[in-house]
Design brief:
Layout lengths: L6 E5 L3 H13 L3 E5 L2 H11 L9 E5 L7 H11 L4 E6 L4 H9 L4 E4 L4 H33 L8
Parallel strand pairs: 1-2, 1-3, 3-4, 4-5
Helix pairs in contact: 2-3
This protein binds magnesium ion (MG).
């Protein structure tokens, strides 16, 4: 089975970690963008936003970063692009923060150091959820359009 590439945004202040993980994910056939702070992540997301949906499927987001932390970044991501799914990365001592993140709309979290296969599995699941959500949104928008047009035409 051919796996569809996932459009990923990796966000972590540890540059080596981001660069190594980015190489591995690219080798596995995924499309990876990187950011080293919450602020940079929001800029990348704003740049890649299409007219209807963001181009990024899944954001892997470190919780502990200087400046804007992962939880604040997550809240701003979800406010701007509710459809994009976020997987949080957290240290062993910070599971409570990860739970706070789940309550703020994160798809899931992983403990650092993240296992590559586990990360990939969670990213696949997150992408599936994002696609299903995006599809429901498109269908709802098509229905709304049809209603506004008085049922004169049917969307394809
Ligand atoms: Mg960090």
């Amino acid at each position: 089975m051919v796996k569809l590439p996932i459009n990923i945004l990796l966000v972590d202040d540890e540059r080596d970690f981001v660069e190594i993980l980015s190489l591995r994910l690219t080798d596995a056939g995924h499309r990876v963008r990187t950011a080293f702070s919450g602020q940079e992540a929001l800029s990348v997301l704003a740049e890649t936003e299409g007219d209807a949906l963001p181009e990024i499927d899944v954001i892997v987001l470190d919780i502990k970063m200087p400046g804007m932390d992962g939880i604040e970044t997550l809240k701003q991501i979800k406010a701007k692009c509710p459809v994009v799914e976020v997987i949080l990365l957290t240290g062993h001592g910070a599971v409570d923060t990860a739970i706070k993140g789940l309550k703020s709309g994160a798809f899931d979290y992983l403990l650092k150091p993240a296992d590559f296969d586990e990360l990939t599995t969670k990213m696949e699941a997150a992408r599936k959820q994002k696609d299903a959500h995006a599809e429901r949104l498109r269908a709802a928008e098509a229905r709304a359009l049809m209603r506004r047009s008085g049922g004169l035409f049917k969307p394809d």
